Amino acid sequence: MLTTLTLLTLAAQAAPTPQFHKDIVPILQARCQSCHRPGEAAPFSMLTYKDTRPWAKAMKAAVAARKMPPWFADSATGHFRNNPTLPQKEIDTLSQWADNGAPEGNPADAPKPLAFTNGWNIGQPDAVFEMPTAFEVPAKGSVDYQWIVIPTGFKEDKWLEAVEVRPGDRSVVHHVIAFYRRPGSKWLADAPPGVPVPKASNSSETGMSDGSIGGYVPGLPPRALGKGRALLLPANSDLVLQLHYTASGKAAKDQTKVGIIFAKQAPKERHIGIAVGNGKFVIPPGDPNYRVDGEITLGADLRVLDFTPHMHLRGKSYEYTAIFPDGREEKLLSVPKYDFNWQLTYELAEERVLPKGTRIHATAYFDNSPNNPFNPDPKAEVRFGDQTWDEMMVGFFSVAVPPDFNLRNLIQQAPPKPPATGAGGR
């Protein structure tokens, strides 16, 4: 009599070997090709069999270890609609394909190729703003952050439903933030349009810019809002790009551009970005588990959409917790193993309306020890700063509000209290 184990073994042996065009391409289209194609963040393309075949064993290892697609949220906390984690069935299919020599199969079995619009993930933009001249990045050494003012020329308010920031050379662009400033602002008032202005490490856009419309960092998708939501870009505003370049060992040139798509109808809700964080910390040399806390209080009932934690190379973990007016606490997002190389946004599967008076508390841990392989200098005392050898503790999140919402009501001024920085967690 055949045992259950024997039957399962025979069934596995009888199962057909996965073929690239029939079995693998649908997985790549759903999970991988948005990044793994020419001009995007991934180091190689997965659009064709020829491109993909050399990476078969590496793909198996990455998906089996769940390193790819990148995702760092604790599954026990919250549910997120953009979670790209592969189901076990797809991991098994990719593994079996690699183990059996990565056969190509019949090209006729492949699904229709995905359509990508001239490199833009948002589709063809209605307007594109590009740095007028390329910025030259040296092969070695540090490069100051740069500000570049780009006038929009818009004479009336514009509602934006999608924004994409595209670097000209991703190998040297660490990140870009597209801020905007209203007419009459004193911020960079003397900066010639299109000419890079070095940004001092201790200078800030806080209180100077009027907000941002988008940005670029590896792992961060373009901003496409939908659902009757849009960003407001006030009339006669200028864009101000904050650009962070890192030398790659080879001299390069970058000419970043910003593409936007206008809302076709008046929006029902305005998309707003908020941040909770702490810039007043000092991480001691060698500390493997240094805690930093930050908190803000919501000034109105706000519909929360997503979370984007941000730290640098010593970042270890990050959490958001809601403390409701009645004292109840609920963890909203936990990222137990933060990865600086993938600055992900975690989009709530079910958007939450948090009541006025809710405190959004953020807790981050940093590893400044020699055991952190990414640590630039375990002997350094580390403070808040722009460069990657400095640190940041910022928890961005997005909310949706009525189009005529008074932004002064977003956040309540919290009463003074003793700083929590460095407390506990040792």
Could you please describe the fold and organization of this structure?
Strand 17 (315-323) and strand 18 form a beta hairpin. The model is unreliable at 422-426 (pLDDT under 50). The protein starts with a helix and ends in a 14-residue tail after the last strand. Strands 1, 4, 8, 9, 12, 13, 16, 19 and 22 form a nine-stranded mixed sheet that branches. Strands 6-3-10-5-7 form a five-stranded antiparallel sheet, with no helix packed on it. The protein is globular. It has 426 residues and is mainly beta. It has three domains: 15-109, no CATH class; 127-267, Jelly Rolls (Sandwich); 271-412, Sandwich (Jelly Rolls). 11% of the residues lie in helices and 32% in strands. It contains five helices and 23 strands.
Total DSSP helices: 5
Q: In CATH's first tier, which class of the largest domain applies?
A: Mainly Beta
| Total DSSP E strands | 23
SSE pattern, N- to C-terminal: HHHHHEEEEEEEEEEEEEEEEEEEEEEE
Distance between the termini: 59 Å
pLDDT averaged over residues:
90
For the record, the CATH architecture of the largest domain stands as: Sandwich
CATH-derived topology of the largest domain? Jelly Rolls
Alpha carbon gyration radius: 24 Å
The major beta sheet can be summarized as: 9 strands, mixed
Assign an overall shape. globular
